[in-house]
Amino acid sequence: MKTKHYQFSKQFIAAIKYFTLFFCILSSLYLIYNIYHIENFHNKYLTKVQNIYSYVRRFGSYHNNALEEYKLENHYKTNNVSLIVNTAGNVKILSEGIDKLRSELNSITNNNIWTIAVFENPANYAHFDPIRPEYLNQFDKYGENSVMYRIVEREGLINTYQSFYGCNLKLTESYTENGSHIQIRTLYYPIYNNRHLDALLAIDIKK
Fold first, then answer.
1. pLDDT tens digits for range 128-172
2. Alpha helix ranges (H) inside the chain
3. pLDDT for 45-72, tens place per residue?
4. Rg (CA), the chain
5. Non-local CB neighbours of 195 within 8 Å, separated by 6+ positions
6. Which CA distances in Å does 125 have to 25, 67, 82, 159, 198?
7. Cα–Cα dist 81/10, whole Å
8. Contact 155, 188 (CB under 8 A)
């Protein structure tokens, strides 16, 4: 009986050792697999952010050099881009550039761009792609030193042009948009020209 018990104990201990060795090897392989994929994801994420930043900065340059036309107070639409003019005057024509920006960003984000808005300063007009009740409601209350400035101040984007190394692109935490109940994150980019805040680009990205 003692011999059988001894042999059983020996076999049991050997089985435990083999299982422990197998578990360690499997855990190590799983860890290596995760490290590889996390690093791969991190690299892809950084590349994606850099591409987004590049396209957004190009749009800032496009905005500053866009042609202007005189427009009466009205709602104008070119393709999917709406131009809301609150005060008659010269306005920048940005529809083509906004279309191009959406196309480029959709290719990076798997068609998850929800809304692109360009708020001008002073708030005589704004562009929306597409126009949504949530943005219209904000724009109705929008004025110089109002909504846009509150966003810029809240997101820490005031006078970012002064910082050589600073990033003037800000991505918010995920939140649910009022009305549509869509889960989004908003990317803000203030457009400065000669130290003056000319406009604020807002890009809503579906989560």
1. 999 887 777 666 555 544 556 666 666 666 655 555 444 577 778
2. 2-64, 95-109, 133-140, 147-154
3. 556 767 788 888 889 889 999 999 999 9
4. 27
5. 159, 161
6. 63, 15, 10, 22, 12
7. 77
8. yes
Nearest to 62 by CA among 118, 122, 109: 118
- In single-letter form, the type of residue at position 117 comes to A
Question: Of 162, 126, 168, 163, whose CA–CA distance to 143 is shortest?
Answer: 126
Query: Could you give phi then psi for residue 77, rounded to 5 degrees?
Result: -135, 130
Say what the pTM is.
Answer: 0.71
Q: What is the DSSP letter of 177?
A: P
Contact 199, 118 (CB under 8 A): yes
Please say whether the beta carbons of 178 and 85 come within 8 A: no
